[in-house]
Every structure is written in C-alpha cells, then in structure tokens.
Amino acid sequence: MKTIALYSIKGGVGKTAVAVNLAHAAAAEGRRTLLVDLDPQGAASFYFRVRPRAGAGKKELLGKGGRAERAIRATDFAGLDILPAHRSFRGLERALDAVKKPRKLLARRLAPLRDHHDLVILDAPPTLTLVAEGVFRAADLVLVPVIPTTLSVRMLEQLIAFFDREELDAGRLLAFFCLADRRKALHRQLLAELPQASPAAFCRTVIPNSTEVERMGLERRPVACFAPRAPGTMAMLALWREVAGRLDGC
Amino acid sequence: MICVPLPIVLDDPAALLAHLGQGGEVVCDRPHTERRRWFDSFDWRLWRAGRALAHDGRSWLLVDLADGAVVAEQPVWSPRWPRFSADFPAGSPLGDALHDLLEMRALIRLVNPSGEITAWRLINDDGKTVLAGTMEAHTFERTQGEGVAGPVRWLTLAPLRGYEEHAERALARLAEHGLAPGHEPPLACLLRAAGLEPAGYSGKFTAELEPAMSAREAFVAVSRRLVRAMRQNAAGVATDVDTEFLHDFRVAVRRQRSALAIFKGALPDDEAAAFADGFRTLGQLTGSLRDIDVHLLDEASYRQLVPVALQPGLDGMFDRLRAQRSDELAKVRAGLASDAYRNLVASWLTCLAGDAAGPAAGEPVCDLARRRLHRRYRRLLRDGRRIDASSLSADLHRLRIQGKKLRYLLEFFASLFDADDVEALVGRLKKLQDNLGVYNDLSEQAARLEAELEGLAARRSGAAVAEAAALGGLLTALLDERRRVRKRFARIFDAFAGREVKACFARLLEDGEEADDAPAGGFRDKHAAEGQA
C-alpha cells in the first residue's frame, strides 16, 4: 500500500480538487484507492457527496480501539472509497497533543487498511502542526500545489525548514504548479524559473486554471466525468501518471 | 452481490423498483442486451468450483458464481470454439485457470440466453448513490425447438460500503412483496429453465438404500443408478467428446459386475450369470481404447521424462497409438450401436423391473452389507500382509483388485452406515489404492514399452535406433519411478492395517468384536525397503 498526501500551508490553491481527481484517476486504472479527508472543511467529501457516518469522528480515526474502516464509505466510482471529514476533526490537533507518541499515530491507524487498499490519498488541512507532521510521516510522497508567485519559493523554503527541524525526509516533497495562467507573462516567467530556484523537486505537469475544475463545486464529481477531454482534466491525468511513476519507484 | 429471483410474470418492474427506493430516487439506465453462451464440462467441474465460463461474442469470461465478478478474461482469438483448455492461447490466464479446473474434460455448450439488463441506482438527497443493482430478464431458445423459454427474471442488489442499511431496507421492502434473496447463483435458474440440472452429473457413485430393504431391492436400486450412468456416458463415447466419457462408462460397467457378485443370490443364478457375461463383454469391448487413451493423456509428461535430444524418438510410438485409437474407437462405436448392446441394456432394465428372485433375494441388506464388508476387509488385510520383497507385480495387481472391491462395497452401502465413518475409511483406502494404482499403471506402461522395443528389433533403420533410444530412456525413467512407488507400499499398508482403521471399521459394522484376528501393526514387508521393483 502506498500513501500520498496533498498538503499546502495556505488554502485556496486547488489542493482538494487535485486530491479528488488523482484519486479518481488512480481508481480508474485499477488501484483500490482510499481518499482520507482530514480537512475539517470537508471539501473532498463534498465533491463526492459523502457525509460521515454517525459517530465516525476523530475517535474512530485516532482513538484506542477505534477502527478507521468503520468510517469508510464507497464513492460512486468503482474501486474508490472515502473516509469523509467529520466535524470532530477540528479537534484532531488537540487529540494528538494528548497522546504520548502523536507523530506516528496516524500512520499506525492507517496501516491496517493495506489489506483492502493499494493507495491512500490524504487530503491534509492547511496547518503546520501535529496533524501535518502525522501526515508527513505517514506519506510516501507529499504533493505540494504551488501557485506561480514569487512568494511560493519562500513557502517551500519554510516547509523544508520544518522538515529539517522535525528530522523528516524532505526528499518526499514534490511540488507542482496549480492554478497556472499562461496568458499572464509573470506566470510564464515563473513557471520557467521557479523550479530551478526551488529547494524542492517540481513536477513537469502544470495544472492550469480551468473552468472545469471551477465547476467541480457545482457538478460534485471528478472532472473526468463531465469534461473528459478538457485541458484541466488532461492535466490532472498527466499529473497522476507522473506521480504514479514516482510512487512505483518508492 | 445479492440476487433476488423474480416471478416470470412481472406486471410492473418500474413500480417494483420505485417501491424499493421509497424515500429516495431510483434512476435507471437504458436497458442493454447481453448475449452469453455458457459452458461447462459434462461433470460440472467449473460449477463445483464456484465458477462459470461464458462467451459474449467478443471475449471469454470466467466468472465467480457468487457475485458474477469476472475472474479472468480472454478476448476471442479464433473463429472456432475451443473444446479443451489446451485450445486457449498459451500463457492465457483464463486458459491456465481452466486447465486447473477442467484437466482433460471438454467444454460443452449449456445455454445461450439473451438478457435484457437494466442498471439502476438509488440516490439520496445529496445525489449520492446509496444502493445499486440490476433488473434482468433472460430468454433463450429451447434446444428442442419448442419456441422461446423464459423470461427468467431476477433483481440484483450491490450494497455499498458504508451504506449497508439501504440494502437492508430494500430487502425488507422486497420481503413485503414476498420476494427474498435466492440461495443459488442466478445462473442456476437459467439452467433449470433450460432443462439442465447444475451439478446434476457426477462420476461419484451414490445410492440411497434403506436399512429395511431386501437384498434384491437394494440390488435393483444400485443397478438402476449404474445403468443410468452407462447410458449418460454412452453418447459422449460414441461422439468422442472427451476421454472421460469412456472412463466413466467403464467404471459403471465394472461397478455393475461387482454388484452382480456382491449381491449373488438376489437374482436367479442363471440370469445373473448371463448378464455378468454380457457386461464382461462390454468391458472387453472398451478396454483397448481406454488403455490407448491413458497413454495418450500421458504423452506430455512422458516426453518430459526423456532428455530433449531423445524426445523426437517418441513420435513414432505416439503416432502409432493415435492410428490405433482411430481403429479402436470405430470398434467401440460399432459396439455401442449394435443390437447386442441395445438388447443387453433393454433386457437388463426389464430384469430389474421384474420380480424374478434368487435364493438370497430376501436377505436384509444390512446383514448382506456387514457380511460382505467384513469378508472383503479381512481378505484385503490377509493378502496385503503376504506382500514382501519377493512379491511379483501380479500379486500387487491382485491386491489392487481386492482394494477396488472393498471400495465398491463401501460406495454401494455408504447410505446404510455413519457418513463420517464411511468417509474416513474410504479416505484411508484411497491412499492404499493410489499407491497400488500408480504401481500398476507404471507396470503396464513399462510392459507396453517393452513390447514396442521388441517390435523395433525387427527394423534396423536410423529412425528405429532413435526410437529405441527414446523408448529405452522412457522405460528406465518409468521403472525408476515404479521402484520409488513400491518402496512406499509397506508404510502405506501398515497405516491402513493399523489400529485406527480397525477401530473405524469395527465402529462401522457395530460388531463389538475386532474385525480382524491378526495382531495389529508390524508386517513382513520390511525387505521391500531394499527396493525390489
């Protein structure tokens, strides 16, 4: 079983849309996939129209004797399940704080799922806390969506500094451009220059700003379902192929 | 996947679905048509393994009977129907799976239904699918040409992980209509509507005997089963579908002859003798063809026993065997089409239906069974103990026959005794029989090879030399294997003749006394460990 995390220090960069579409692409090619929505905003769950089961909150996910499987529900797509966000996930940080070894707890709780899933995708909340650390430790790859701005380099540097401080392997980080608009000269320039200046590895695939991804909130399904040949969809697929290649090498 | 059979006449499928979805919306896809042709071996090997094979025009599909999931798939590669698993492309996962399940049996067409399938989904207020399934109606042409049969209808439900309560509620609503999940795969309903009984044929023998039956009644019950087996297989022999029809036919004949001996006295002696003669002739008619089949079935493994360089030398022998097979098959076909055969079967059935009784016809079957089992078991132990290093192949062959007779007894009378005890004994006996059987097969094969070699001595061509080398290599390998098999006999027989089996037998016969009066354990075949072939 492999684990990918989608993480960003700031919100609104398109992280969850990417998580949803990567999960859909992975399942479509035959991997038994689970998307874990750790973000209490619950956007991933909203896209898949899945609500949490009654009582399937942070206790089920993290608590002693809790079984994460009980919270899992099938999406409308074959081979793709979701562990939906529960409002109690707002208290994940506090819950982890109260535990003796909080950093590895998430990874431990996810381990039993390998019997039924080939791939776990974690949609992480935008914080730099114990939850994030737990996500970083549980993941084989941490995908970081980056908007083409000069501040993005700083953001990546901050993230790597965090990794170094916590003795995490920064080689797991994989950045990719998101919400890129090639009509803007500044974007074009940064798309070319940033990867060289970046302390983290960058994907070749760029996710463009696209109406189809914007429409996901209305359609409430992955872009491949309603705009199969649109540029945004093709970019998501290409990103998945690139990530899968890296994963299979892990 | 849950399958709910529906009545043939269903007034309003849409209304049923709508009712299923009470509280939610049911969305149906447009119906699509699916045409599949289903296959299995004559003895339902795929079915018994929980599988089914279908051809849908584009691909071959091996499906799981429980949930209909496709386990292996092979796109159609040839316009011709494959008959055997070996006909599938080399390395095809489906072909390999079939080979494991079918072995040498041929695929037989079962039924070719045309199905109208409507996929439906139950969605909640968020637009999330909480339950999915299909509504299906299958029709097919009757093989007798009496028009179209069906429709055989069913409803499937696929509960979704995390939304199981919706499936439970749907089942409850179906129960209100008197509909409940079936306990069988939906394919079973289709097959029955086509007049086929899934797993309806088996090479195993079963007969339900009542303890209160007389010997004659029991004999008739057993014989009826055996004649049916003969007739079921005769057609497959004549059309040469696969080798096992002949095998099962011969086994039925052998069992019938054994029954005539076991139930001696149930019929008038002269009648019994005449029929015994008739069945013996039938056995002789088919013997050579079966021998050839066995050799040809072993062809691949024989070739592997001989170094690659020598393998072409075996071609001559196998080509001759194939030619001989054609001749023998023609003889068997003629025999099965003959008046002699037809009269034998007809007069046998008449005899069974009649009431001509022999001197022991009225003996209670339980007494007969106990007596025969007792005697056969003792005989087997006695003859087995006599086997030592100096024993000839003929002695082991005789012992094998003894074992077969005991097995037939256990099979015939199984229903009169405790099922577990019978099963345990048959299992123990099987180990002994397997050892003796392999030894016997190897002896026969070696003898045949020796005969071939002798035949070669007259020819002095280069081809004959190559063939002689190959046959020599093969003969050596087989005799080597036979030596190994022979070595194992002592231990296997000791296990059979030991305390445990004795106790099991005593329990079976409810004798109270030991079924055998020689001391248990430790026999004289110690010298066989030196490996006399």
Explain this structure to me?
The complex is a heterodimer of chains A (250) and B (533). The longest helix of chain A is centred in the C-terminal third of the chain and has 18 residues. Chain A has an eight-stranded mixed sheet with strand order 3-4-2-5-1-6-7-8, sandwiched between helices. Chain A is globular, with a radius of gyration of 17 Å. Chain A is 43% helix and 17% strand. The relative contact order of chain A is 0.18. Chain B is of the alpha+beta class and 533 residues long. Chain B contains 16 helices and eleven strands. In chain B, strands 1, 2, 3, 9, 10 and 11 form a six-stranded antiparallel sheet that branches. Chain B has a five-stranded antiparallel sheet with strand order 7-6-5-4-8. The two termini of chain B are 57 Å apart. The C terminus of chain B is likely disordered. The chains are: A alpha/beta (250), B alpha+beta (533). The interface between A and B is small, with 12 and 8 residues.
Low-confidence stretches of chain B: 517-533
Q: How much strand of chain A?
A: 15-25%
Average of pLDDT of chain A:
91
Proportion of residues in helical segments of chain A: 40-55%
> How many DSSP-defined strands of chain B?
11
How does the major sheet of chain B shape up? 6 strands, antiparallel
- Kindly report the oligomeric state of this protein: heterodimer
The largest contact between protein chains, plus residue counts on each side, is: A-B, 12 and 8 residues
Mean pLDDT of chain B: 89
Structural shape of chain B? globular
Q: Could you tell me the strand content of chain B as a percent range?
A: 5-15%
Portion in helices of chain B: 40-55%
Largest sheet of chain A: 8 strands, mixed
**Class from helix and strand fractions of chain A:** alpha/beta
- Give Rg of chain A in angstroms: 17 Å
Care to count the β-strands of chain A?
Answer: 8
Radius of gyration of chain B: 29 Å
